[in-house]
Write a structure and sequence with these properties.
By secondary structure, this protein is α/β, with parallel strands linked by helices. The protein has 19 helices and 14 strands. The chain has a 5-stranded mixed sheet. Strand 3 and strand 4 form a beta hairpin. It starts with a strand and ends with a helix. The protein binds uracil (URA). The site of uracil has 13 residues, from helix 14.
Length: 478
Amino acid sequence: MHTVHLDEHADFAAWREQARGLCAAGLRPDQVRFVPPDRVEPALDFGQAARPAARRKVVASKEFLERAERAVCVAEPARFDHLYRLLCRLQDQPSLMRNTVDDDVRWLTEADKAVRRDRHKMHAFVRFRKVGEREDGREQFMAWFEPSHFIVELATPFFTRRFPNMDWAIVTPYRTAVWNGEALRFELGGTKDDVPSEDVVEEQWKTYYSSIFNPSRLKVAAMKAEMPVKYWNNLPEAALIPELIGGSRERERQMMDSLNFDPNPIADKATFQPEHVEKDLSPPDVDALWEQVEVCRRCDLWDGATQGVAGVGPDDAALMIVGEQPGDKEDLSGKPFIGPAGLLLTDLLREAGLDREQAYVTNAVKHFKFEVRGKRRIHQNPSASEIKACNVWLDREIELVKPKLVLCLGGSAARAINGRPIKVGEYRGRVLTREDGLKFFITSHPSYILRVQRYEEVPTARPAMVEDLRRVAELLAA
Ligand code: URA
């Protein structure tokens, strides 16, 4: 047995160098064992043998290497052995990666997915606490996070782009990432006690979280899946959850009563100046797309917005619902249609026999466009060029989800899907087909209903929209 000791948990470069040499020397997978720090083995270790001479050239596709680089982060002690077996098999079966039912290929797919999901969770759930200030006034923050996989090196470059102007450290059990504005370095891991537990930033987070909490969508199981209980300790806002759940009915009533919201205190993005790092216009799945939308600079809207908001919902949904752009609440929370228009949309869909949770819900434009008036951020319609710039993401969402039908809410969504302006009044309520065969259906935007309801101008607007949605339900059932 040829044993390779790896010093780091997710050292792809070291594995790659060793694996290439061993595979070139013709060592079979059952003759090689990789031992990362988390692999506890019986004491039968005879040390690292000299590597035999190379006998053949080793090739690996870009796709394999990209996925392997993520898969080395999965918390499975034998991960490097799995990858070595795949690398060896690929030499004789170059098309193996296309065999999606092969056990090794499936392992790689699952490992890659688990790692990307964990990275996504880290990006969403890290909460910094202010710990001090340097002499030059630069603020210093720390955060504690417990990833499920060895993703610190993979996930933390994101925070250097998102928070370049503050010093920060993210402590995890196996590794601590430290940023000083110039370089990201990795040190030994730590414990929760290394990070102070209270400070003023938490109050802001609590206010923010209370205000974005959407009582009408209260689903404890879904909330736990999205924000696993494991992370609750770490999140200041989680302390509010029991109270918020308790008071949800009353809050729902209040929310419907007041359709205007003050801008949130943390909408001030003094430290949020990400660079343009978007590099993949065809992300392989919806999680990866979310990350690319986060760093999108295809038009100027990112500059005013808190974050990009990509779609949510099952990635094989039969129905894709496309709105115009995130509003104030969506901008702050990172989720589409969670504000007043979203509440109404959920109700209208329910009335028509459609379950919003079964649909993939997204927007034509992924950043909030607004004008500041006093303390409020007032929605502005996106321009044709902003819709066009964002089309690359919407088209990719369609390619990935492959919906049976796309439901366009209002003119901007219809324009984005149709590729040119199309009159909602003229074309609503029937199935239209795009040149590439995509079926789409146009109806009003729920904000329109909210507007006209308030002034009681058009009492028929709501029933007309429900009627359209019923037709959508029939089309999906057919
Ligand atoms: N309006 C939209 O079009 N999309 C949202 O996500 C919210 C409001």
